[in-house]
Each structure stands twice: as structure tokens, then as C-alpha cells.
Design goal:
With 223 residues, the protein is an all-alpha fold. It has 9 helices and no strands. The longest helix is centred in the N-terminal third of the chain and has 35 residues. The chain starts with 7 loop residues before the first helix and ends in a 6-residue tail after the last helix. 26% of the residues are buried.
Length: 223
């Protein structure tokens, strides 16, 4: 039995694929931006907050990192209406992604903060630098340099994990692929093209992140 590829049946729906890819990027960028706010606040609380708050944050991190992302989405989308909180598919997807990436981001940022040698901070104080100056000139850039690769990897994973949001019909690329496949019944071609789109997006993002690192975060060479 031979199979005849009909990619024309897929590319005929290219506006929907493009819209799905755009929605995936928008959803991922919003989730990463909000998630990083959660991560920064959580990391600061974990490194310098009271013990009871550290316990809560540790419980949140372990709960999210040790449960499937799909279950987290279902809990938010299908579970919250039971207590009177109903979210649209897109809002539920964004919430789930923020909750998920926030847990991973806390540990990444905490590691960056703790990577700064305390002696450098003391040196800044001895020079009469104010706390904001110490944070800006002594802590911020070295911390970003330390965690930048992990953060960019986490963003790529977030973008790829957004495909799971199709399970609740959120507006993104995999959901668009499902709609197209239900109309042309060319499953292999549809998902092969979508695989290529995800790969292309990942390559573009990796290239952009590498360019940013090279331009702004490159450590000076020692001679």
C-alpha cells in the first residue's frame, strides 16, 4: 500500500497556521513575562523571606514540578468552575503556563542570586555604594549572565509546552492543526508541517537569544 502525500491540502490553510503560530508566540511571551515576575518575587521571598513563606514557596515548586502540565491545565480549566471561577480557554492556558513557568523560574533566579559572591557585595558597601547601585552594578549583570542560558531554555520549553493547551481548545498552533486535520483528514501532512513550524520557531528564538547574549552579556575575554 502506497501513501500519496498531499501537502497542498495543508498549505491551503496557511493563514490559519500563521495565525496559530502567532498566537503561540503571543501566549508564550505573555506567560514568560508574567511568570518571571512571579519567579523574581518568589526567589526573593525564598532567599530572604520568613520561614513560613519559604515553606509555602517550596510546596508550590514541588507541587508544580512533580505533576503533569496537562493535569495542571485541566485543574484550572475544569476544576475552578466548581468553586465559581470560570476562565476562557485562552485565559486558562495563560494562567496554567504562568503557574508552571513561575515554579521553574523561582529556582533558576534563586540560583542566580546565590551565585553572587558575598565578598563582591561587601566590597560595594565598602566603596560607599547605595543598595540600588550594588544591585545594579554588582548583582544584576553577573546574576543574569549566570542564569541567562537556563532562562532561554525555559522559554523554548514553555513555547513547546504551549501545544498542550490545545487540549482545552486554546488558540494556538496545535489547536489550529487539529481544526485543519478535522477538515482535510491529512493527519500525517498536517502534523509534519506543524512539527517543522515549531522547529523553525525554536531555531529563530535560539538564534535571537544567542545574539542578545553575544551583544549584551558576553563576559570580557582575559588576556
Amino acid at each position: 500500500m502506497t501513501y500519496e502525500f498531499e501537502f497542498g491540502e495543508v498549505f491551503a490553510y496557511w493563514p490559519e497556521l500563521a495565525a496559530g503560530a502567532a498566537h503561540t508566540l503571543i501566549l508564550s511571551m505573555l506567560a514568560m513575562a508574567i511568570g518571571m515576575v512571579v519567579a523574581v518575587l518568589g526567589a526573593l521571598a525564598k532567599t530572604s523571606g520568613p520561614v513560613w513563606l519559604r515553606w509555602i514557596i517550596d510546596a508550590y515548586i514541588e507541587l508544580i514540578r512533580n505533576t503533569p502540565f496537562l493535569i495542571q491545565i485541566f485543574l484550572i480549566f475544569f476544576g475552578l468552575p466548581s468553586i465559581g471561577l470560570r476562565l476562557s480557554p485562552d485565559a486558562a492556558a495563560l494562567t496554567a503556563l504562568v503557574v508552571n513557568v513561575g515554579a521553574y523560574g523561582i529556582e533558576i533566579i534563586r540560583a542566580g542570586i546565590e551565585s553572587i559572591d558575598g565578598g563582591q557585595i561587601e566590597a560595594g558597601k565598602s566603596l560607599g555604594m547605595k543598595p540600588l547601585q550594588i544591585f545594579r552594578y554588582v548583582v544584576l549583570k553577573p546574576a543574569i549572565q549566570a542564569i541567562y542560558p537556563a532562562l532561554t531554555s525555559q522559554f523554548i520549553l514553555l513555547m513547546l509546552n504551549s501545544s498542550v493547551c490545545s487540549a482545552i481548545a486554546a488558540s494556538e498552533l496545535t489547536a489550529a492543526a487539529g481544526d485543519i486535520q478535522s477538515r482535510n483528514f491529512r493527519s500525517f501532512e498536517v502534523y509534519l508541517v506543524v512539527t517543522g513550524i515549531y522547529f523553525a520557531i525554536s531555531v529563530v528564538l535560539w538564534t535571537a537569544f544567542a545574539g542578545i547574549e553575544h551583544a549584551f552579556l558576553r563576559k570580557p575575554s582575559r588576556r
